[in-house]
Amino acid sequence: MKKIFSWIFLSLLTLSLLLLGMFNSGAGAADKVQTGGTLTYLDMTPTLDPMTWDIEDWNWKHGYDTGFYMEYLLMGDLQKGPRGTKKFLFHANAWIPPDIMTGELLEKWEVKKNPVQIVLHLRKGVYWQDKPGIMNARELVADDVVYAITRTKNSRKALPHYMDFVGKMETPDKYTVVINMTEWCADWSLRIGYGYFNAIQAPEQEKAPGGPKKWENACGTGPYMITDYKEGHSQTYTKNPNYWGWETIGGKNCKLPLTDKVVMMIIKDEATQIASLRTGKIDLMMLINWKHVEGLKKSNPPLQWSRFLGTGNFTMAMRMDRKPFNDIRVRRAMNLAINKKEIINSFYGGNAELHTYPFPPTFKDVYTPLEKLPPSVRELYTYNPEKAKKLLAEAGYPNGFTFKAQISNAGQTGLDLAAMVASYLAKIGVTLVLEPMDYPSYLSRMTRKNHSEGYFFANDHGNPFSGIRKNFFTGEPWNPHMMSDPYVDKTLEDTLKNLNLTDNQALEAMKKLTVYIMEQVPCLILPTAYSYSAWWPWVKNSFGELRVGAHRSAPIISRIWIDQELKKKMGY
User: Reduced to 3 states, what is the DSSP secondary structure of residue 309?
Assistant: First the structure.
């Protein structure tokens, strides 16, 4: 009886709220912003613990974990997204188009072409957090920016050539940094502004016992301060009372952040993640597999929803430097052996797109629709096992072959899809031996280049330039295809360094290059699924955005507020 009563109560409350128009995820005119409270949520990689707290380690996940307390020079302008002009969705992991960028630690910036310079003008009145035993609160100055960029550039873990364009840096005054470029770099804004390795880290952390690699020493200029980390459980961020940022909500100027505390949960098991959302133990879940959506909508009708195309292609890279995949006929055969449309219908229940490689349709400046691709590329999306067998025979493998492929065991969906791929390949005589690994070991195999002939991975799009560079440029750590193509290397280099190209011309060059790369068939292309975000009605000023830069949700989270009265009324 108690369960029936609770269900009736929730249903009536849901209907009442709908009639009152209170299910608007943003803060409408009738909503009075309530500061305080705690937001508990799951971000985009909720199964993984932090991998580093130090910018010097050049780790892709750095901004995900440190972005609450460390800030960047640039970020995406959220007012140009769903909460404002709706020009950009803010779903991409790292792509912020030039006309969507705004300053975070910068008031403004200038790009000069004679001489080739970037002039950075810092915000005034931005203060480092007071961290007893580490540093006293003080104003952020130009020397701090020079320190952070220099430390990143000089790291022994730095990606080759990534920051070579950064030459001598000057500080004409305490709020200005002049970067003299050794050569023009078209995607400088990603490489030093809003990208994976660009947090501005305090110099004082190096002198503390344990240094920047110890989370207890972490501090920054951001909206929150990290106050707790429990391995395998959670990261806790507490409000920075001296934060510089403000946001206009419903015509009112509000000091950020709006909540007193943010708890980012780490939950390894997908069923436990869903249960935590269903029972209200978490307020917001940024990544939900499509298969759970209908059930959640039935069991928890008040939940608010946002749908987005997956933020990275899940593919199987084929090592182009080893047999059997050094033969393009074999690589083509692998693709023809996979019934991609059947995967969309049976594995994803229709919730996936066929062609999103190497960039999704949301990257409109560099995306070529399937019907406009060359016939040789369009064929890769068709199912033709008989032709696959013929190609294998022509390549010298009439009886097929056996190969291994590493895969991360962090997500069950990837494991299940890889098993489905193995069953398709078996039909053309190819035996795929899967090697599931914990994420650090799996990642190490690729970056050290001792991975097997196959390697399942999510191809993080980055921006159009970095997506090409890191996945297909000769010698890059994130190039599991081991592609080494002089045309790819030269075209990318020439485009990046051509001072006379406009942004649109540079992107058009990348669009043509992506088609060429697809013609080389570096991977087994797989469909990309739609995913969902969901949050409870008491989570206000949430519009489904995911990232304002490279894996950074913190500026989005800092603008969310909790309607604590509504939460209490709903019994949570």
Answer: strand
Residue 346 burial (C-beta neighbours within 10 Å; 0-12, 13-18, 19+): exposed
List the structure tokens of 7: 């269900």
The 10s digit of each residue's pLDDT in 306-365 is: 999 987 889 999 999 999 999 999 999 999 999 999 999 999 999 999 999 999 998 888
Q: Which DSSP state fits 245?
A: -
Q: How many alpha carbons fall within 13 Å on the CB side of residue 401?
A: 16
Which residues are CB-contacts of 549 (< 8 A; sequence separation ≥ 6)?
63, 67, 72, 74, 75, 76, 94, 96, 194, 195, 198
**DSSP classification of residue 107:** E
Report the alpha-carbon distance of residue 238 to residue 227 in Å, rounded.
6
Strand partners, 113: 116
Q: How far apart are CA 223 and CA 205, in angstroms?
A: 18
Which residue from 177, 206, 214 is spatially nearest to 192, judged by alpha carbons?
177
Write out the H or E segment, with its range, that includes residue 39. strand 38-42
Beta strand 284-289 with 38-42 is parallel
How, if at all, do strands 284-289 and 312-318 pair? unpaired
Helix, strand or coil, per DSSP, at residue 418: helix
pLDDT tens-place string over residues 442-461: 999 999 999 999 999 987 77
Domains of the chain: 2-303+536-569 (3.40.190.10), 312-529 (3.10.105.10)
